[in-house]
User: Fold these one by one.
Assistant:
Number 1:
Amino acid sequence: MLLALLFALMPAALPAQADSPHIAASLIAESDTPAAGRTVTLALAMKPEPGWHGYWKNPGDAGVETKLDWTLPAGVTAGELRYPVPGQLLLAGLMQYVYEADYAQLVDLTIPAGLAAGTRLPVKVAVDWLECTNEVCVPASAELALTLTVGDGRVDPARQTQFDGWRARMPRPLGAEAYFARAGDRVRIAVPLPAAAGVDKPYFYPLTADAIDYAAPQTVTRSGDMLIIEAKAAPGATHPDRIAGVLAIGDGQGLALEATPGTVPAAGEAIGETQAAPGGLATILLALGGALLGGLLLNIMPCVFPILSLKALSLAKAGVDEGAAKREGLAYTAGVILVCLALGGILLGLRAGGVAAGWAFQLQDPRVITLLLLLVAAIAFNLAGLFELGTIGVGGGLAEKGGTAGAFWTGALAAFIATPCTGPFMGAALGAALVLPTAAALAIFAGLGLGLALPFLLLGFVPALRRMLPKPGAWMGTFRHILAVPMFLTALGLAWILGRQAGVNAMTVGLLAVLVAGLGLWAAGRRQARGRAVWPVLAPALAIGVAIAVLVPRDAPAAAQTAQVEGVEPFSEARLAALTGEGRPVFVYFTADWCLTCKVNEKAAIERDEVRRAFADGKVAVLVGDWTDGNPAISRFLAQHGRSGVPLYLFYRPGTAAPEVLPQVLTPERLTALIG
């Protein structure tokens, strides 16, 4: 053991690099075709053999950080090496900050502007590191290389998933001011962190050398919205003007912070291994109630209300007895809940795999948008009377078709179309679902589905409600045509989203798919009216339409034009930290082109002249995060604030650590009242 410690403390005295490193290193680019004038992230992926470990930037009492020596093409520059949150290894009283499992360090390369597409960029780097077991340490090195080609910056989905997983292990900026104070031989650090944010096994990894005694035990307590870290000062430590480091708050999760001298509150409630851990019965019931109410409100969305209305009126038709009404109500509910469970299960699986996905992840793919456009357009054409395919169960016929099968698929359709946008009561509920145990999380998603299905379920089981429905008559045909209007508006909105998300060429291709499918449906309806088979014309038209939808191009970067309004900047955690550090008030809102609630709030409140004047007079900085394409950085920030979807509205007041979370329905008066 003593020999191992001497090796760790005096790496220069060790023999030259091992012939076969015990930590395999590889260099991977997030995009093999980075765009000129942009940055591309490279990963130094490290894979230790069992029993071996590598070191963090500050290795602690022993160890060596990773050293890089780049050979880059002219004009290409490499940024600082970024380390994931480490772990602790205490040997013979010496604390080391290490990685004992696979890990990746990230670095950004800046590609100069003006390079022609196809330009080859050879990248080489010499890497030196120290690899150790509990008994022996060996210096190791590797010569790594790859060749990039200037292109459009596209990222392979599998590579994106891999990098999302690595980024999820990187510490996030705290985004608020931390303070420290020295009292005798103790250092105390106050870290602003909302009480609602649970932490697991908190530990502070210092980057500032010799600020605290690495091996000394740390205590962490909570005082309101502050975490108080207390540790022994390093022997002979001076009084630094700042203490930088990373606060670990969970498995591989951490916050990068920089504390300056200031007032630190008295210690509060002691935190053990887990503090404010989600999953209690009260938390689950509160989230379940929010999901239920949120799902209920989704019924008034323009793409759901026509489907619900037609299905409800079908119960008013003659011949629907008590038993049939109940069966249809249960079948509709089953369709809604199963789709919500499926979407929730996929979301939980993606996040477990390291993908920074959130609610409505399915609408972040242009192909899904195009398929939805086809479906909604078919429903709109059917409601307008262009064709009648009631026995096939397509479009509006699906909503009107009797029996449990029609009710089930109607519910599934309503859930898939309605769930993308979080509204009142839903935001906190779905955010809680992502940190609850799997069974409890799925119960939240089922509660969302139950809320969405509740009106039709009540109609099926409460005869008095069915008797309140208007009597069938000729007026139903007119009403059906009227209901085509919101469906056409929904289709128009989806086409606009497709254009914003993937470019005008993609929107054109999507409309072409609608044209082909619409012609096929019209021809099939004509054949059916004459008593002829419909599938010979319907099947090819639908197949061509779906094939076009699946192959929709993506010519422009997703998410597009944020910050078109004067004085509004695109959101980044670095920019937010800079603005709050200047002492400016900051309004941050997160939106997406497919989020109806977001767009209503923007037009009705955020972009109003009186709000702009009030923000300008109060010198309020405005940051907007566009989540149309599922930006992983925004996904992680949303999760940090207990949300899994948009909208989210935050207001940072000068001198306060935690932001004020605004309601999901805004008014100009609510926003102007922030300036005071």
Number 2:
Amino acid sequence: MFRWWWLSVCLVLAACSGSDLPEDVPPGSDSGTSIPSPDAGGDAGTDGGLPDAGADGGIPDAGFDAGAQDAGSDGGQGDAGSDGGAQDAGTDGGRDGGSDAGCVRCESPPPPSCYDAKTIVTWFLPGYCGSDGGCQYSSLYESCQYGCSNDACQPCPPQCDGRECGDDGCGGSCGTCDDPQSCGGGGLAGICGPELGCGSWSVGASLQVARAHPAAAMLSDGRLFLAGGLTGSGATRTAEAFNPGTNTWTSQGSIPDGGTTPGGASNSFYSFPGAAQLGTGKVLVTGYADNAYARFDPATATWTPGSGITTRLQPLVLPLANGQALVASGITEGGDRVLLSYTYDDVAAKWNYSTSREGRYRAAGVQLADGRVMVTSGIADDVYGQAARSAELYDPVTNTWSYTGAPRRPHAAAALARLQDGRVLLIGGTSVRGFFTGTAVRSTSVELYDPATGLWRDTGFLNVARSGHTATVLADGRVLVAGGVGADGKVIPWVELYDVETERWTLTAPLSTARTSHVATQLEDGRVLVTSGTSPTGAALASTEVVQPAGFCPAHGCVPESDDALCARQEAGCGTLSVQDACGTTRQVSCGQCSLASSCGGAGIPYRCGAPGGAGWQVETLGTAGGRRPGIVIEANGEPAVAYLWYDVGGGGGFTYEVFLARRHSQGWSAAPIQGGVLSSNVALARTSTGQLRAAATMRVYIYSSSNEVPTLLSWDAGRWRDEVAAPTYPVVNASQLAMGLGPTNEPLVCTIDLVNYFHTAELLCYARDDSGEWRRDRVDAPGSYGGAPSVAVGRDGIPHLAYYDMNKKALIHAVKGDTGWTLETVDASADVGRDASLALDAQGHPHIAYRDATNKDLKYARWTGSAWSLQQVDTADDVGGTPALALDAQGRPHISYEDLTRHNLKYARWSGTAWELTTVDASGVGGANSALTLDASGRAHIAYYGQDLRYARGP
């Protein structure tokens, strides 16, 4: 629909002379739609060149003065008043090229312009002279389907985000596929994928019995053997084998009923048996009953029952190079994890036992090239389903278990694959607790283990987060991962290939049937066979599918995203979004709800939980976190980054946490994990002089037969986070709280309270690298076990300072390191003072400390003047001073954030130069504990703290 508007435009000089016109966006009334022309000097005084902007309010002379002198509202004196004394008919009559009484031509309409974000206005010929002597033009208002910007209707935006082929939504194309691929051929809309004959999956012979979680073993005669598993009506004892030569499945009888499992047991404990072929050719099967095992003879298709081994279900069963089989891990029907492991010698008909280091079930294991067995992953918590993080090695020669390097993150329902060079991949799985509660978080992480060093490192991340998947090492060295459960908890068909050289994962032809808890193996003829499993509806599957992977054509790009991923991409923490995923599908996505005292958008940012703060402060809720003190820095863009601990609050406590890093952007926050398996301690965060981030946390590391709770340094390097243990291997340490400072050349100093025991004998230890790059430990003091983390600052001269609470003396201590060691001095011993001390150094290297007076329940501040300590009471109202954080501005003035423990509010103190100014930042009454404070370049305060959940406050 078009609308015609006849608008009066007075173009005194510019239109008549054909010169360029000033540009203006017309408002919505006739009196304001004319295009004003400057009075070419005569009005260049008070009104700045605008027409009659003085006494007559900027209305053009096209009104009552009809081109004559302004004898009306400006008193009959022409423009002698507000325009500096020049008359329109006189003074500017000779200066603007002619009289305002008429025009010669009207041939220069204004250019098109945006009326609003969706409408463009066009001025067009013919023009004509109006009664005031100026040129007037007609205008046309027209809707812009895709919006108006830069004074033009915008073209149709092609919808090719995440697509590489097919219709772009604008009558064009996102591209075409080269043969033998076609658009959507890989099962992903808008993506080039393989056709039949190019690595696509084809239907294979169906199982005789549908089953999930069966025991599987590749027999020496090339057949695939399956036994047990879970059917739709309960656990099955049936067995069958696949013959690649005939492409048929044949029955192999049933596992003898030699244990305590009822014949039709529906308990899922009985759905995870294990199997391994022995050196004699027979197959050992166990885990289908509490205390039973059986041997199957493939030559005669007969079974021999056995019993009397330690009760276990869901075990790990692996063949060994010496012809024996290892039975390890597992769980009893009563829920106890089993430490006792066995090896079975079929020649001697004998079980030998040993004891593993950690109990776990549904573990992942693989035999290494040297004959040892690596065991990792699994579930380490029989109540809440917490994922296991440690790794251990079994040596069949010595029949012993030992710890090896722990993976960077906990994993459950992950997959292990031994590469052809002997290294091991740990792929995906659930990374946090919640396996049984429905809150499991699937991971895209993949870690690479080197048996030569016993260490893990990150390698290429999966395209699709998953657990319950399979990993198969192909003949050409690539690793094929298939199926599983995706990030949204749904069973998926997606298949990926790992290239060892590039360490990259590539999506390829998906399975015909989405499945999890299945079996995948490469047959002797090179085909990959995928069989059994659970379907998206929860049904046990009898279907199989096969592929010849040599000709796999990769499919890149579009992967259906989970709701959580879409919310994260939109940086939304609450509310409902209508958002388009990477496959072009628009969905309504629920991003969660806010807790009490917060509302969605309450902090002024849509889809983020928050609440207005006091005195112009802005308060935002970042989300659930671990409750310990976070770290905060300002990045190069002027926005904060916060490092904090995260855990599943529905998990009922526990010991495994993850370090997350949250970054603030114009639309809100985004957060990502940077380290798993850390302990429940605070997190330190610092920014180097080159802008890189360094974080520190405590972590449990297994060394020989003991576990150390050590400080770990996390560094952003080459596009990923790297971690290194900042502690020598001996003696054993038990780090509880920590702090970190960076020296003038960015070298880290990490200091911890080491809990030797809980009877006030904890030590204060500091860790730094020596000239060779090795970490060295330095003992500072033995201040007692409680009182918070120490605070660390390193001066421009490289001299480190510490402030901390000595519980034995109930005093605030300052320590400084010189050439001969640490010098300790008592700063304040007037009462029980010094808890949670926070230290900063000024430009002169003088220390400033904020701390709590627990006796008088006050916030105090100490400053070294150069010759003595000056002590002040900052806030004495209520019970105040909880977990203070101190920062100094460019003038060296202190700023302190702290908790009002009486009212459970976050408060802020600032020294004005003459007095302390106190402000309540968050008066929600849900807490302001464990605050971390930093100042940006303008001196504005940024605070991360815990008020029922993790929050962020930004100063006015």
Number 3:
Amino acid sequence: MLTAARNWLAQDPDPATRAELEQLITDTDAGDAAARAELADRFASRLAFGTAGLRGELGAGPNRMNRVLVAQAAAGLAAYLTSREPAPTVVIGYDGRMNSDVFARDTAEIMAGAGVRTLLMPRLLPTPVLAFAVRHLGTSAGVMVTASHNPPRDNGYKVYLGGADGGSQINTPADSDIAAQIERVAEHPIADLPRSERYDLVDDTVIDAYVEQTAGLAGTPPRGLRFVYTAMHGVGWETSQRVFERAGFDAPVVVSEQLLPDPAFPTVAFPNPEEPGALDLAYEAARDSGADLIVAHDPDADRLAIAIPLAPGTAPEGSTDVADAADPARGWRRLTGNEVGALLGWRAAERLQHLDRPGTLAASLVSSPALAAVARKYRLDYADTLTGFKWVSRVGGLAFGYEEALGYLVDPKKVRDKDGISAAVDFLAMASELKAAGSSVAERLREFDARIGAFASTQVSLRFEKRSELPAIMRSLRERPPAHVGELRVERIDDFSGGFGPFPPSDILRVWIEGGSRVIVRPSGTEPKIKVYIDAAGSDGTAEERRATADGIVARLEAGVRQLLQGER
């Protein structure tokens, strides 16, 4: 292990990670058990290059994100691209996280040195703009340096493929083919890799085209909608501001503390709009300004969160006291990804029903069945996919797709990945139309319950110290499958480990409950978590009765799932 660490140190060009690794080696030589354990964690394995590319904590060693690992990944990707075509091109983007610009420039120099025509985005920009550039420029591939909504100390490396892949994220078998090339590169010091500064900067016409096409989704929205916007210390504001203005929306009230990129994410414990506390400043701004809506992006603006005012006299989620001044969210609630997906999917279906070739609605397996119900009502094709937009974006004839983790694709002709800016435009246009008609987003949700059905969902997550602990939990559930979840009987279990129907092998268990409800269990792809998705529906009675039925079943299933998982732990 010490030999591997010293070999890594000898090729590391980054003074910060060199100093960090030198200290660990010195302390380990001196018999420091904690240093030895830390060194083992960094060198016992390496960050795997998979369908999510690379993602991990910054630091020295192959099991961290750093300049050595990025150089190896860039050279491996270059080798993969040159093996596929004689003159490949790549476009590279980056966000505002720590070292994102450094990793992007390293990638550009190594790609150019390998003979790949290389284009580098001119500044830090949202992930959807890079995904757009892959299609707009017709490149062979795209690289986005981002860790999306991960903790501040993380960074990552997201890869798209052009050509027949249409600008979608890599999936199997491209991920394993690229990983094999990276392994070959890693057998030699990165100093042996040729570098070149003969790469080009992308000009602003590409960004202008993204802005123009995205703004066009709004049509001519009525003015008068007042909304709050937060970029969550990410890179969404510059592009979103231009899009909102071009689309004709009134200027938003901004959360100034979170508006500009800051890799420290100082106002949030976790830079994810789904996390408790992340929207507290937005709630405050919304109350102060009398806003109709809150629009929030995650740090690379590929995800969208929406919050709406509660009806007078309604308690905030998780609270019984509407007058509790200590509750930052009082008077407001964030919509779930499934609620936003259902509304945007319904809006898409209403547009599509009049077309000769309307296309397909799609959602990931763990998302709510609500979108499938929309497709049935409007006689549209529908497809379930595995988790992740690398699958959603590849559905044939896709017209709209989403996943419950705040990811939406409303304009597949432009971008083949989730796009929080396009989704914000579509949602703002809907909200503007509703307000002009004397209605609201809350009323639209009630109308969905009445016309299509009430769908309720929730998640349960069990966090572990290390990802290596997750397989044992999944194995235990397979070897001792539950007969009940709480007091509700299990009817059958679909095990995706050997493939299921049209789906390739995946570490997923889908548990069907009496009455048609379901529970889906899978390990997280990016964090040391077991994630459980619970869904139920109500289709009888009034909208309020349907909602009560669905919410009640979900609450019972959630209690049963928590009891089951604690028993497994």
Number 4:
Amino acid sequence: MDKRQENLENMDAEELREYIYELNESESGKLGLSWDREREPEKIVEQCGEMVPVLEEVPERDIVRDPAFQNDLLIQGDNFHSLSVLTYTHSEKIDLIYIDPPYNTGNDNFVYNDHFVDADDGFRHSKWLNFMEKRLRLARDLLKEDGCILISINENELFVLKLLCDRIFKEKNYLTTFSVKVRHEDRILKGDKDFHEVTEFLLFYRKSDKFRVSKRREDNSSIEKYVYRVQELTDAPEEERMGSKTVYKFRPDQYKIIKGKPSADALSVTNIRGSLKEGNSSGRFFMAYLNERFESEAGFLYKVMDMGADGLGYRYFTIPEQGKNRKNGDYYQGLPVNRSAVKEFPYPNFLDFEVDFNNVAREGGVEFRNGKKPVEFLKFLFTMGGLEDKTEAVVLDFFAGSGSTGQALLEFNREHGGNRKFILCTNNEISKQTEKNFRKEKSLSKKQFDGMKEKKDPAWLDYAEENGICSSVTWPRMQNVLQGYDGYEPLEGNLLYYRTNFVGLSGSRDQLYYDLTEKCIPMLCVKEGTHVLKEATEEFRIYTDGEEKGYTCVYFDVFGMDYDLFVERLEQLQGPKALYIFALGDQVDERELMDVEDYRIEPIPYRILELYKKVVRLSKE
């Protein structure tokens, strides 16, 4: 028996939930979410156990408009590989993640182990959960403690995704599920269906309780609604005690309410209805003491002493006169003494973006039949996720698709100021329709085509590379929005393009170390936020940002290296941001390096780098 079973009554809620989750994952677990993980494990995940993922530069696809602009990233490759690299370069550095994963409808091009998963696959739900679980666990490690994640989904996998996210992000960090109206109720897609999907859904989780939802904000500085004055026509109104309050009662002929021009000395009127009946002290007072007098004291005014935050010392209430055909009373208040310029309201969990979804096809200047998300919808999510107040935030979308998230964040920067950065990750998969187009163009049977794919025929690989989603949709869209198209003004930003690559751990020892070092450089530059240009010397290479401001990486050419020359050169560098020193032997003396002014030595906890005798990061802030 597990010792924890003997101590169940002493566990707190979180410990008990974790214990239940572990039981779910055992063969005997029957409670909660469980699925078949072993029948067909994901090959891409297994591949990362045999080789190490890194990044490879694709400089011909970089879009660098101005060194003063922020560098955003587009990473082409399977998102599990991309996330694996990002766990080193961006661990706990992401402020907001938005993803629009495959909905697993059987018709949405969801690919698992190089095969489209259709509606007849008996294990399609298990495959989808295997696929999502691995990626969401990596994604959680990328979020800052005050970060959040938003996930679009439809009803096919909504309920299991909620359970999966409760497990990964913890149920206490679940915020809400939004229903998002995406089409008109009469805009029927398929007339033979019994039900018409009008809404999709959006799951909202935080990393921890350090995240704060940015509520709706409304200007609270205007005095336009403060236009009323109460004129008391008697000095001897009837006095009454209501609870702990002294109340002066005015009959309809003992007062006048005068409406005039807006003034900071005037009052505003609020109708006591709906949630206001219990939502504040004025509503509760009215319901407790005045509501029952609707018939007997119609038209009365009540001056309730010691109430309100407007400094008047009282608050007026009225019951409508008979014949007004009104069922609710009113209260009058002055300007709050310490009111803020902005008032916050909670978001409803129903969002109507029907018009934006209906017009989304034109956005970005590219066609994407798998479904774009509207830019306005995404900018709304950025606001709700608190990015208006985070001018240097980093946003990640690892199901980037058409690149809507990138365009939305660039527009968000333009509208709100700041240098927020995005990281878009997408594979370069082709759609079923693209496969059909290739077969038709080459007059191939399905059997012939499947043979070409299996043999990795160059003709097919070239076609797939050119017509994959990243090459033909995501990257062209980023070109459009950064350079302008069809009257669309170019946005400020630079795009650096990378592909995922692998380093195999076989081959001759010397060649292995050279290969490892070369292939690590782009990844380290991404970590440091530096674009790579190369400067070579006989003994070692230095990779810089091209402006002599932020040296990123030093690579020892370890054979025949003049160590004294290296140290001398190191001391001459001006304003370096970070230097990585790779060494196979004991030539690197950390004590000498620490003597170089203003540098700090940091450990490098990455699988490839651990193979070296010594890898040192020196930083100068």
